[in-house]
From TrEMBL:
Its cofactor is Mg(2+). Signal peptide: none annotated. InterPro entries: HAD-like_sf, HAD-SF_hydro_IIA, HAD_sf. This is 4-nitrophenylphosphatase. Divalent metal ions. Mg(2+) is the most effective. Substrate binds at S65, N66, N67, K225. Keywords: Hydrolase, Magnesium, Metal-binding. Mg(2+) binds at D32, D34, D251.
Length: 321
């Protein structure tokens, strides 16, 4: 007997009883940032009211991004304005923080070759790890000169790959050589495309990771969305006992929704990224990317909270009569 195909529920189209069951089904919200709370740094109108409504009604909100290019000061600045200046830095998560947490758990003490942004590398250095990077400058097109740069004999114990604006072929070659000598293979952000506007998508670090995975014949430890190791670490960090009591909010099925399902969380897709409700039918054969719920924007979630709170008050009033 064939199982019934999974259907995504539009929150705005639910009955008030269904909205109440939805609202009562989670205690924690983990949300992506880019494409959900803001786009290119500009906050979407109304998201601060949703955050306030959730927190005022007993929901803890954690901010989980794959973007390690943005500095912690930048995250704090944006989230301070959206949280009435009550953001706790521990509630801001991105791959650089998870990588640091992972390496410390392993008592790692060795040289890391890092492909990543200046901020990503600065985070690792400030945490006390030895970093080797580059080169960013061109290398003469000579196999001997390239080989001398690539096969440098450095005792690299971990290759870490995240987004790098200055990515080049020599960096990939160096990473490939280090991976031949049993270095840890760690990936941060796994996005293959990066939405930077309604019609603009850049190549993401997931493409670099896939190249290295294929040529080195090794799977990375994925410490960004949608990696299971990242999921396990977040559950540990926030003492998540019942994963179904967590709602994960994102705008990208391949990264956010998949991460939510990997974590056994409930999932909510918002339409402020590249996906609208009509696009969900394209995911019919990708159940791990199909969200449990959909809403046009994170800001509209505030009305759901308001509706449920008002409904509960009416019910209490009726029972008291």
């Amino acid at each position: 007997m064939e199982s019934t195909p999974k259907m995504t529920k539009n929150l705005l189209k639910l009955s008030i009883e269904e909205k109440e069951r939805f609202f009562d089904s989670f205690d924690m919200v983990q949300t992506d940032c880019d494409g959900v709370l803001w786009m290119l740094g500009e906050p979407f109108a109304g998201v601060e009211f949703t955050i306030r409504a959730l927190r005022n009604n007993g929901k803890r909100v954690i901010y989980v991004s794959n973007n390690s290019v943005r500095t912690m000061a930048d995250y704090r600045g944006k989230l301070d304005k959206l949280t009435d200046y009550t953001i706790d830095e521990e509630d801001i998560i991105h791959p650089a923080k998870i990588v640091i947490h992972y390496l410390r758990q392993r008592n790692f003490d060795g040289l890391c070759y890092v492909i990543g942004s200046s901020n990503f590398k600065a985070c690792l250095r400030e945490a006390g790890f030895q970093i080797l990077d580059g080169p960013n400058e061109p290398v003469n097109e000579s196999i001997r000169e390239v080989a001398a740069v690539v096969n440098d004999g450095q005792p690299v114990k971990a290759v870490i790959v995240d987004f790098d604006y200055n990515m080049n072929n020599i960096k990939l070659l160096r990473a490939q050589m280090y991976l031949r000598h049993d270095a840890l293979f760690i990936a941060g952000a796994m996005d293959k495309v990066l939405p930077v506007g309604p019609r603009t998508r850049y190549i993401g670090p997931g493409c670099y990771v896939e190249i290295l995975q294929n040529v080195a014949d090794r799977k990375p430890i994925v410490l960004g969305k949608p990696g299971l190791p990242m999921s396990k670490m977040l559950k540990q960090m926030y003492s998540v006992e019942d994963s179904r009591r967590v709602l994960f909010v994102g705008d990208q099925p391949e990264m956010d929704v998949k991460f939510g399902h990997t974590s056994n969380y409930q999932t909510l897709l918002v339409g402020t990224g590249n996906y609208k409700e009509d696009d969900l039918q394209k995911l019919a054969d990708k159940p791990d990317e199909l969200p449990d719920y959909y809403i046009d924007s994170f800001a509209e979630l505030e009305q759901i909270v308001r509706d449920v709170v008002a409904y509960k008050v009416r019910n209490v009033t009726k029972c008291g009569l």
